[in-house]
Fold these 2 entries.
Entry 1:
Amino acid sequence: MPAPAPAPSIDTVIYAELQDAAGAEFAAELVVTFLEEAPLMLAELRSALADGSAERYRRAAHSLKSNGHTFGATALAELARQLELGGLPADARPLDVLDTEYARAAAALQELARG
Amino acid sequence: MAERNASDAVARLLVADDNKVNRLLLTRSLELQGHRVACAENGRIALGMLRAEPFDLLLLDMEMPEMTGFEVLEHLAADAALRDMPVLVTSSLEGMAHVVRCIELGADDYLPKPVNPVLLKARINSSLEKKRLRDQQKELVRRFATSEVAQDLQESGFALGGRRVQATVMFSDIRGFTALVESQPPEETIELLNTYYTLMFDAINSYGGVVNQMIGDGLMAIFGAPLPLADHPAHAVRAALEMVAMIEQFNVERTACGKAAIHIGIGIASGDMVAGYTGTQRRATYTCIGDTVNLAARLEAHTKVALRTVLIDRAVRAALPEDLAVEPLGAVPFKGKALAVEVFAVSTEA
């Protein structure tokens, strides 16, 4: 039996709404900003985990969730939400999962932004 | 924008959000709606900007480093100048408890992120409209009431009915005003009254008094209510002396341009009275009533008989410091008073 196709990383309806509301050009610029900012949030998550700071960990996850929803990166947002509400994990495995999903979402967003 | 009408003036908004994507997107949405937007990266910066320059509305994120949105709301509520600033919270915090806490802390509304642009526009317009009405109301109160009454209204709210206070009441009017009115064109009388009131308000306010009634050429002022004032009898007498001095100055100008000098009479009494808002729910004034108030009015009328400018009762006399010279005029029987009242004249010699 073939593996089920992976869910699309970006909800294109949501991204189209963003383009409608803010303008396609602005949406593309916003994607660039997100791709600059998101790696900082992912790094902050790892650093907070290493320092044992539940508060910084929660805040970084919260920020990533919020931005995920903005661009229609629903799966990324849902993973970030679980981290936000779940407290400090025992190890970095949830962050590896998050990184993978971010890479997928980032690639799809770049594609969409290019129009 | 063509569809904007006159009441839809451009508003100045502040966006406080630590997340750059959120900040840029909100700013973009608001600018597309025709507003002017400034940004702050955390609560502390936002609070500093709100204190430094005027804004019409704050869009506030909750999760921020250095100072959270909750702390910003607390600071705003404690700041008399910023208490009425409309705040729309934009947040993706989970749970109804956060929403309730924001509203309890004084936020106008709570918009979940990502913010729907249509909802955002509706909420902002409604908040700005509410602020416009509030500003208008404040301006009306400012124009038609004294700042003390306005402050009392803002802090205690409006309720008809009185409370018992210890205060000092002053009545003042222009001697021979009727003859003056008949001798000059009405425009000149209005101008005279405006100057007269400006001078009298200035003197009374500078000693902590509140002018609460103006009738023709007469006025009534209260010292010690609605806001308490230490040494209110002495403050009232010093205000009276200032009024007399100002009228003398004014007379120098008047006689220099060939106009008749004007003279005032002032009566002051101190003691128990009932102060509060009287009238109806729609139209009310702040005033004081009681024997003390009647006595002050009688003393003012008696200045014509006694040929003195400032008359006071025993309670005011007893509270005056020694540097104010006072002359006892003996007991005077007043209409409506069973016993004769001791009357004192305050020396108006500088």
Entry 2:
Amino acid sequence: MSEDKKIPAASVGSSSDSPFKSSSMERRGFFKWLSLGWLAFAGATGGFFTVMIRFLFPNVLFEPPQTFKIGFPDDYSTNAVDISYKKQFNVWVVRDDETIFALSTTCTHLGCTPNWLQTEGKFKCPCHGSGFRMTGINFEGPAPRPLERYKVSIANDGRILVDKTKSFKWEKGEWENPESYLTV
Amino acid sequence: MAKDDKQKSFLEQLGESQVWKSIIRSGVPRTRRQRMHAILGSVFLHLHPARLPKHAVKVGYTWCMGGLSFFLFVLLTITGILLMFYYRPTVEYAYTDIIDLTEQVPLGMMRELHRWAAHAMVLIVWLHMLRVFMTGSYKPPREFNWGVGVLLMTMTLFLSFTGYLLPWDQLAIWAVTVGTNMARAHPFIGHEGPGASLLAIGDINLVHMGSDVRFALLGGRFVGEATLLRFYVLHCIAVPFIMMIFLAIHFWRIRKDGGISGPL
């Protein structure tokens, strides 16, 4: 502001012929730029927070793959639980009289990993004592629902392909879905 | 100490020296006003009231729980920084470094101090809340500070939870597995929570095992190497940093809301 526009402080805003009146366009321009500045600041801040949230979700995981092959159907004996993929992939491969299915090793109570007890014919969770039948149906302890099953299919080379991104829940009737088991 | 006009005592000389005045800002305080200025002029003391009401030192009323909580926070910060000189947050070294800290590192007690102080802090923060509740000290004008206190307690519990994973033993891994599974059930942002299935485009779920809040917390689909590093950073840097800001607000508001509450 130029020097000649100096006025006594007391008259600011109180007089209708204030010298500030002549600069009303400047004021409007000032507020326009001020709003724009604030909008830009808010946008940049919001954008950075979005980037921060996105940063927490990694693109590459150093974990075993969600989809993997577990050998041929004939590798599995009838009415048996195969525990050889438990440690690496967190699945049990179970074969009963007619089907082969892949059971999740995650307890449906609080997410611990049960153990397959061969002599008692059940999965038993060491954390809170939940028990599951060979089928994955819960029958004792605090687990509220059966173990989940994963999608199984036969790959082009004849081996069984397990896809852990698709799971099937008994309580939703999804075990009827033909993708949840292989007929042998 | 007897003194005459000519000879000033060492303490008096010190109090008038430029070094003293440059650090403390005022000379040796002699009047009430000067004492008050000495408090207000110090960055460490200025959060405190310049003068205390008599009831503020009644331990039977306050239980000194707030002060003890802060003492434990300071103790945990110091011992925690010391532990960081030895501890490496990797799957390969984490467990053995903790064994090393208790069995080989000189005095072997920093880890125990940190662990027991952490347990004590959780207990004492709860007792602090109980005392504030029982004495009605949450009532206006202190209701905002109650809210700040609830945030501080939540952060205390979260620090306790994140620190629990760092020894990387079976207890830690499964406790955190169980604990973080609760995040699955968070409304909308947990993949098993209510409303999560609504966030979908056609058949594609936006919130699933690999994109929900638990995934962000763990840095993966299960408790693993990424989780250990994440919890380490949260435990040592992120949460203490936020907590210190809220501690300053908490102490400042005690003073601004009329000082420490007293018996009515």
